[in-house]
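Hi R.,

Here are the chain sequences for the assembly we discussed:
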Amino acid sequence: MSKVETARPPIGPQPSVGERLASLRRDMGTREARAAYLFMLPSMIILAVFVFWPIIQSFLLSFYHWSFGSSAQQWVGLDNYQRLIPDARVWNAFRNTLYYTVVTVPVGMVVSLALALALNRKLPGRGLLRSAFFLPVIGSFAIIAMIWSFLFDPDIGLLSYWLHAIGVPVTGWLRDPDWAMPVVILVSIWKNLGFNMVIFLAGLQGISQNLYEAARVDGASSWQIFWRITLPMLRPTTLFVLVISVIGAFQVFDPVYVLTPGGGPLHSTETVVAYIFHQGIELIDISYASTIGVILFVIVLILTLFQLRLLRFREVD
Amino acid sequence: MSQAIESPTPINTASIASGAGTSQTQIAVAPGGSRRGSWVNAIIFIVLVVFAAGMILPFVWMVLTAFKPESTIVKFPPQLWPTAWTLDNVTNIWQRVPFGRFFLNSIAFAGGVTVVSLFFDSMMAFALARLRFPGRDVIFLLVLIALMIPFQVIFIPLFVTVHDLGLLNTYGGLIIPRATNAFGIFMLRQFFMSLPRELDEAARIDGAGEFYIYSRIVLPLSVPAMATLAVFHFMYNWNDFLWPLLITSSTDMRTLPAGLALFMGQHVVEYGVIMAGAAMALAPLFIAFLFAQKYFVNGIALSGLKE
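And here is the predicted structure of the full complex:
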């Protein structure tokens, strides 16, 4: 940005505020727009080259037949899309992703909100407790998965031993087709709880204390205060957490890949992105992997727009 | 937002209207309320402590296992507390992995991305939140689309792009594609929207330009949000596994998670060594976390996430 714009001390006789505002508005349209584009330039270039160009490439690849390494790209029209229909594994992957999403998003949001509400109270050792819940967030999934795999090891794992000791029937946990996904879900919720909690805490702290005091004075119960004040005032925060959680859940890869490599027992934990990874990286069928990616993208796009509409995001402006 | 504000308003006016009477009620209610409140707090506290203990159990298990001899680790039933202590696992991993080099690479990668991305994200978010220009909604939608695209969908074309630019196995290749981030733009935009617009207007009347408003008004008011985002960026990149694995090919360019995970992938059976490695990979962030807890959990004033 040029220095010319940063500071322009008024010269000569001072026009009235109204006049100055009016003249300001006149030339602001173009000047403001120019500034806006300059501000966005670095980010737009990076997004264009490293996000949108690859997106366009992926989209185009879904109409071609191409394998990495070979120079020949062959236009195949909708062939890749037709391959989806009889592919049982892709349907399975969408089912698993849906399963993962409908459990982790609501459970994760409700528990993290409850934690935020509890830890927003004046409790002894509050800072320490918050840190304990946040601790899993700061670890790398690649590393953390090793601990959990060990904890649930059916032979020498501490948790599988303790669970057996309290009467839970012996299973293979991450090696059992029925139990692998619940364990993956548990670990994911455990990992992300602190992140959502912190965002909810921040949202709670942003609510004016006057509202609570006024409600209490009027004899509102804690329950009423929660439903009538806390929840409505938290709406922007909830929206943010919801959008981020759903987008994240539909893209889930790290926990399933590191906890249950190769899609888990009988592909029971193979999510869409894990299947894309399998097709694109392991089988090097990049055009088919891209096709699934396009479908996933369209679904997430529709969902996000729906969520934004639902929570009337447009009112922001 | 209008509706959200409306619902509490009647309560507010009512309380003002009832005036002096309210303070009396408050006094009457307070003692009973607080006694009940302290019981509730006690129950909540106990539940939280038990829950928190469960949350940190995996880390306790990791650290304790790192100091157990391999022979006791594979014994059944598993024991949480070691019966014998050893430093073998820790020394073992130091000898087998260039930990210092991985550590420096992680600092360069995560630190570099954090600094550059905070700058670019905030500039873009500022334009989207505070300036009027044609095409703003479309551009914001593009940011959301960038947020929605799974990395695994685009990373093959992305890899080809980085390759074509000759950036493979360099710090530039690691950092430049990450130099802006849709999540950061989205988050900061939400925050910037919440700052009172009158501030900009007042500055404009005084002849301030957009860059002045950005650097002297919006940024100073956004320190908590920026600090939060800095923590998120640093954490995310420090922990990232797939991206450094893809872009770097030589051992001396690997970051901590990528390097250690690769090493550990080859030694799956030695749980003691793996847990020692995991502890060492997690330690730097845990130590940073201890020193900057305020920014991680307490001081995060993302309150501006409201509309």
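Chain B touches chain A through 123 residues (CB under 8 Å). Chain B is about 75% helix and 0% strand.

Let me know if anything looks off.

Best,
T.
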